[in-house]
Amino acid sequence: MTTPGKTSIGFIGLGVMGQSMARNLLKAGFPLTVHNRSRGKVEELVKDGARAAETPAELARAVAIVILCLPDTPDVEKVLFGPQGVAEGAHEDLVVVDTSSISATATIEFAARLKTHGVAMVDSPVSGGPKAAVDGTLSCMLGGDASVIAGCMPVLQTMGKTFVHLGPVGAGQLVKACNQLVIAATLMGASEAIALCRKYGVDPVKMREALLAGSARSFVLENHAKRILDQTLAPGFRAALMHKDMKLAMSAGRDAGVFMPATALGVQLFGALCNTGRDGLDSASLGLLVQELSGIRG
Amino acid sequence: MTTPGKTSIGFIGLGVMGQSMARNLLKAGFPLTVHNRSRGKVEELVKDGARAAETPAELARAVAIVILCLPDTPDVEKVLFGPQGVAEGAHEDLVVVDTSSISATATIEFAARLKTHGVAMVDSPVSGGPKAAVDGTLSCMLGGDASVIAGCMPVLQTMGKTFVHLGPVGAGQLVKACNQLVIAATLMGASEAIALCRKYGVDPVKMREALLAGSARSFVLENHAKRILDQTLAPGFRAALMHKDMKLAMSAGRDAGVFMPATALGVQLFGALCNTGRDGLDSASLGLLVQELSGIRG
Question: What is the pTM of this model?
């Protein structure tokens, strides 16, 4: 149900995260137009009261704020600047909020190109996983002008609980890279700990329980490690996306000469995970790869 | 103040963790005898009502349960089996509870040797850091016979809040190794994230704040990362001990053929930290090493 007087929103990218975020916009009463590469998710949201747009340009013309939630940098570029892209539907006061996790450098470039169309951009990659997306309790890592961000806050508040303004456009993406590399490092540790227990006949379920009560506790140990132990490895967050995020972090680090050996290892391990046919599984399937490479069966 | 009828306890090793644990035993009314290599800490506890023992053997003769909280495997071996060691003071029904973090394999061997003296052993390494030691809220990772552990529970409950019985003697130490390698992996990630932010002029304090609200959140990000950002690097938990723990984890992994590349990296990085004169600083000083190696000053 749409509340009169609310800002009209366009949402592009109805994946695991995007569809929950779009649904929360509808619930909050925002007039919503959606676009997605595949049609199935669009139909579901149309049933719930959204309008469908055939192209990003058509969507952009109809709304005041365009939100993107796309897999990777080239997807964002295509949706913004490709044929029938957002830029073609540009109009005064249009704002693009990118919740995708993409390159910080490319984000700065995209923002500059959008500016030539009179369009402002905010990067707001998110963390917290699918459950936080459903609950509207994501952590939003914001980059962009403070005044533009302020104007987007009523919209962002339907998705997230924590908002940290990290700096100019691109700063949100840099911090999202930090988020992912910390998750990956913790997940590598958790995977090795589980394999070590298995090899010694110590119950890794009890190990996790003990660690959750001490200094090793983390969201990853709580959630990802549980997925490894239960072998529930349907995504969730796909290994291919984690591999992409690790490459983004590594590339940012390399450009600036940052010493990042754990991130480098993460690029390699998530690469190996994808190379062995598990790109479509949850990123926690790293735990199974580590077990395999330790000679642990099933 | 000693409560009549309570089991007499001996405590050996009054370091950062040990002195807090011993003090909690006194508070709970256990008759306590203490021994330590250096005398200063002994005097403090004697003022609070503890008795002092000149040697581990003398201490063992006087008590029903001996608790150890020592830095490393050779220290435990010396206190148990060296001249005037615990074994020389062995008597019927004596139990040794080792809260040190040492080799699981050596622990199994020590338990077997103690058994020839009629002494039972439990390994109960702890996690949670100095604050949890003061508060008596440590996580205790228990290895040993269930009946022996049951007999020690009133004593353990003065120190800890969470007790997980992980298996036979040595299982607690294996899981403590898991705990440490997970902390080290997370700390490597947090250190790299802070360096990445610094290089790009993004405020790492805000980065930490954003990450604590999402899937990257952890005790390490809350505590260790704060120490890095505040540069409060007096221990806490010394880098030298983390290096020792990583070597213990790696050696357990190597013996069993476990694939542990993140742990291997941790051995190297904490080794480098010790090799550059920071063995006496808190393990969080890894963050400063990563910044140095990224060319970040001050």
Answer: 0.96
